[in-house]
Write a structure and sequence with these properties.
By secondary structure, the chain is of the alpha+beta class. The protein has ten helices and eight strands. A six-stranded antiparallel beta sheet has the order 3-8-4-5-6-7.
């Protein structure tokens, strides 16, 4: 069981700086202030001020124009922040079926406000729901179907029934909104990671002569789908 400690005297802004430094150090080994400024989209002067505060709190070692390194205390706090982020994001994507981009933004916000007790309970609930021995077989699949059925009932009540089609039948230039994604949990998770989630608008850009592949635009970027994949996506 993970142990989530309280983080005292560190504002959410400085937690973001420490999280960025920790992520960069974990991936690249060496951290420079210009990299922090680029990732956080802030001015170099703002990074310098933040680094000075983090150094005063003995969370990093830092000299102007030199590399930045976390202290053992800084690494410990970064690990706590990172665990909270992963726990929240995992729950949002795997249990609540929130798309990857939205879940990332939410997790970055929630990690600052959530208490250690709630974080640990979320982690335990996630483990409980995914464990066939404790919660029963196919619980996640049943939860997914429950979401779909309840959404259908809600739409019927408010009169929002709109004709639905398979994404694979749309022609270039046509727009649609994702209503449902079929397939097993692994396939749905793959689509979520690609940004394909319920409520997202899709524009079909190109379709190969034999209908495979299909190029679409979603969230401002392009994706290429096999026809077999597009047949799992119901749009309206």
């Amino acid at each position: 069981m993970s142990n989530f400690y309280h983080i005292k005297d560190l504002s959410s802004n400085f937690e973001d700086y420490l999280k960025t430094i920790g992520d960069l150090e974990a991936n690249n080994g060496q951290v420079r202030s210009k990299e922090i400024a680029k990732i956080m989209k802030v001015k170099p002067s703002s990074v310098t001020n933040a680094l000075q505060v983090l150094r005063e709190q003995k969370l990093i070692t830092y000299e102007p124009y030199g590399p930045i390194t976390m202290t053992s205390r800084g690494k410990r706090i970064w690990l706590i922040i990172h665990q909270k982020y992963k726990t929240v994001k995992g729950f949002l994507t795997e249990i609540l079926e929130i798309d990857n981009e939205t879940a990332d933004k939410l997790a970055c916000t929630i990690e600052h406000a959530i208490s250690p007790q709630v974080t640990e309970r979320i982690l335990l609930l996630r483990q409980f729901l995914k464990d066939d021995n404790t919660c029963g077989a196919d619980t996640i699949e049943k939860l997914h179907n429950f979401f779909i059925e309840q959404t259908k009932e809600t739409e019927k009540e408010i009169g929002k029934e709109i004709p639905m089609f398979l994404l694979s039948v749309l022609k270039p230039g046509e727009k649609a909104t994702i209503h449902k994604i079929n397939g097993n949990s692994a396939i749905r998770q793959k689509f979520l990671d690609m940004g394909l989630s319920r409520g997202q608008e899709i524009i079909v850009e190109r379709v190969a002569p034999l209908g495979d592949p299909i190029e679409i635009t979603i969230r401002g970027y392009s994706l290429s789908l096999r026809k077999s994949e597009a047949e799992l996506i119901i749009v309206r």
